[in-house]
Design a protein that fits this description.
Shape: elongated
Strand content: under 5%
CATH class: Mainly Alpha
CATH architecture: Up-down Bundle
Radius of gyration: 18 Å
CATH superfamily: Ferritin, core subunit, four-helix bundle
CATH topology: Ferritin
Number of domains: 1
Largest sheet: 2 strands, antiparallel
Distance between the termini: 40 Å
Number of strands: 2
Order of helices and strands: EEHHHHH
């Protein structure tokens, strides 16, 4: 993940649990806000529903992180929270649906990397489990968005499942 154009490792090394959780909360709230905006601009009811669902998932992630942060205190050595690369590019108005989905994919991949890093640095099993769960959910969001991106890139070829986005397993091989 990139923060302000750099690797976040230096910031992460100086940050305490409170600051790490605060960054996660801000990322999740930003993602929820972006998904709500994407839902308003989506060209189909199905895509609007998917973005609303993702907005709610991200809101819940923020709530879980805020709940965990209540049990921590700010570090005296931490620096201000950085801005993630996807946070810097959250304007969705005027984007094509494919561009919006690409932005969402980037954000989901960044979040997954962030949570995996958090899990690897967490000393307590309960905290590690929370971050591993969040990373897995972000990975699932990315997979759903990958399928959506394939559908938005152009006309779909024939699919064995009428009305569904085709996946690799839908194509016949010789």
């Amino acid at each position: 993940m990139k923060l302000q154009g750099k690797s976040y490792a230096a910031w992460f090394d100086a940050a305490g649990p409170y600051e790490v959780l605060s960054l996660g909360i801000r990322m999740e709230r930003g993602a929820a806000k972006t998904y709500r905006a994407m839902a308003k601009n989506a060209p189909s009811a199905a895509l609007r529903a998917k973005f609303r669902y993702l907005a709610e998932e991200e809101r819940e992630h923020g709530r879980l992180l805020a709940e965990a942060r209540v049990r921590t205190r700010p570090s005296s050595k931490a620096r201000p929270l950085p801005v993630s690369a996807s946070e810097a590019e959250t304007v969705v108005e005027g984007r094509t649906p494919a561009e919006a989905v690409r932005l969402a994919l980037r954000s989901e991949h960044e979040a997954e990397i962030f949570y995996r890093e958090c899990a690897s640095r967490c000393r307590r099993a309960k905290g590690r489990k929370l971050f591993e769960t969040l990373a897995a959910q972000e990975s699932g969001h990315a997979a759903a968005l990958e399928r959506e991106f394939k559908a938005l890139r152009g006309p779909l070829p024939w699919s064995s499942l009428e009305g569904f986005v085709p996946e690799e397993k839908d194509y016949w091989t010789a």
